[in-house]
Amino acid sequence: MSSMTDTPRQPFRLSMLIYDSRYRSITIQVVALIGFIAGVAWIVNNTIQNLATLGKSPDFGFLLEPAGYDINQRLIEYHSQMTHARAAFVGLLNTLLVAVAGCVLATIIGVFVGILRLSKNWLIGRLMTVYVEAQRNVPVLLWIVFLMAIVSEIPPRPADFRSGEAQMLFDSIAVTNRGIYIPEPLFANSLGDVTVLKGVLKDSFYFSISLDLIVLLAVFLGGLVISGLIKRRADRIQEATGERPTTWYLRLGIVFLPTLAVLYMLGFHLGYPVLKGFNFTGGIHLRNSFVALWIALSLYTAAFIAEIVRAGIMAISRGQTEAAAALGLRGGKIMSLVILPQALRIIIPPLISQYLNLTKNTSLAIAVGYMDITGTLGGITLNQTGRELECLLLLMLIYLTISLSISSVMNWYNERVKLTER
Amino acid sequence: MKKTVFFGALAVAGMAAGVAAAGTLDDVKARGKLNCGVSTGLVGFAAPDANGNWEGFDVGVCRAVAAAVLGDPTAVEFVPTTGKTRFTALASGEVDMLARNTTWTFTRDVDLKFEFVGINYYDGQGFMAPKSLGVTSAKELDGATICIQTGTTTELNLADFFRANNMSYEPVPIETNAEAQQQYLAGACDVLTTDASGLAATRASFENPQDHIILPEIISKEPLGPLVRHGDQQWGDLVRWTLNALISAEELGITSANIDELAKGTKNPEINRILGTEGDLGGMLGLDKQWAYRAIKAGGNYGELFEKNIGENTPIGLARGLNAQWKDGGLIYSPPFR
Hints:
By secondary structure, chain A is mostly helical.
């Protein structure tokens, strides 16, 4: 018999789960996880049971019932006999419309205000400070309601246009207390539409895409691509010979001439709003609720974006500006070529969360009667069907999806502009 | 995480509802106060006066129930609810009953699990327009911009009406009656639509009521009445028969003025049964014999409540019309007390 020299590997005993530090942390985590899952399960089960006692077991069947109500702003075809799901889809598009428009306008205003706030001009700098502080420190709901009051109380009524008390701007834009009517693009020889998803789920999700728009976009983008090729050729020639051929007229022409030609062939013209009956008809109607919500959300978020932009710019050392100035660049060029590209790396991550905030804030639309997804699915549908749980779960899921999509797109962009470290 | 919190809140609300459903009457007695859901302010039906005391036709029903149950018509906690929040408030147990111009419909009764205990006002949806618009009929409203209170049956009726008449319109959804007034007066919509009684009440609060007309078309049936949660029959019976007591009182000529006299005993056995001098109807409801006496004494009978709050001598000026007693050609009719 040989004697054992090594300490034998201890067989696993249950008590080791508690007393052995190698296992203890895992034990605690497993126990905590089980507890957490049990807790969630209990709450969910309790909810379902309580709802069942109230006679409201979760059921999404109502989504395919006729909605029965009308929606004023609809980007796609809708009438009151269509399904609740269709109404929710109309609302979703309205949400996306105001969110996208809001993000674009907020970014433009935010960048300008952020830069102007750093201006050496005392008056401009202070004015921007006042703007930023006033917007940031008042709840956005108040701004929305305030703007709504302004746009519905101050502009003239449609009837005033008939009696001549009010005039249309340039004979084409009517600013009324029911919204702003602007001319709409029309095509005399339209190519028609392509309809997608017709017949799916009782026609709940079909939509039409204008072929005219697709053709126009394709031609325009094609022009851009060719213009890029011309630029690259010019670069090559410049590198080889040191002389850059003049290409600006070529590039301008290749971008715009085919597009204009297509517009002409399609018979492009503008449809002007006309006062008929109670209201203006024709043209695009930007409703009060949309205008108020859009402007208020943009101005509010722009104040935050301005601060982010300012912080980003201030984080670039002063030496950069001085170096650029020493190279002979002017103020505007310094900003656009040297400072902003570097500042962007700092600006983008917090900018993402501002976009998310704006998107989530669109749910305040109900305050001014803008029919977004909260107004349709989470408002009228919820009310008429009494299906709170289902509607709210769907709503949360939809907002989650929108927000995650925005963050993934912005994260991708962030990866691209991030400083590549070697 | 958000989801968990949400479920938690729901679960708590669900449990609260479960408990409340067990015995609303006992809850109210223990609390010493009746929680009554009313509208956020509709003059004549439910609105606080200058001193903050709620008054109105619907408020009268709440006070009658409070008087019957608690012996004190002022022991009411009025909870203002919007068209959207009212059902959640009732279902979750936040209020014991709703007396808020609520239309009795099939889905609300059956699918939403509520119990309409009766009808205290027969209404219908109408339209109000400024006289200057020159409109005399709702059929001329093609293309009009219409303010509607969202979350109500009105927006469904409206969609049906315009669809049936092949007309188009632009709905402007609005959350509360006050906002609707403001938008309408600002001219942001041509027409305001809601129940005709609501229009009359709204018009009465305008600076120049005579500048606005209510169009003759009534496009829907809107039987308005108080409602309670489904499942607590005792409480439902109590509210139902309190309302019926007010209606019967008018039919039998019991008023707040002569009730003390009649309570001493009369030759009419039904009056005696209502006022508790004969039989024990109150005991069957879980109350004392004097319950109906107190309910009627609180604000008067149905007719008195009507005349005081929305009748022809008030700024709202509604005629009895369909809401007259059945003897006078109306639809107000109470089952017998026996």
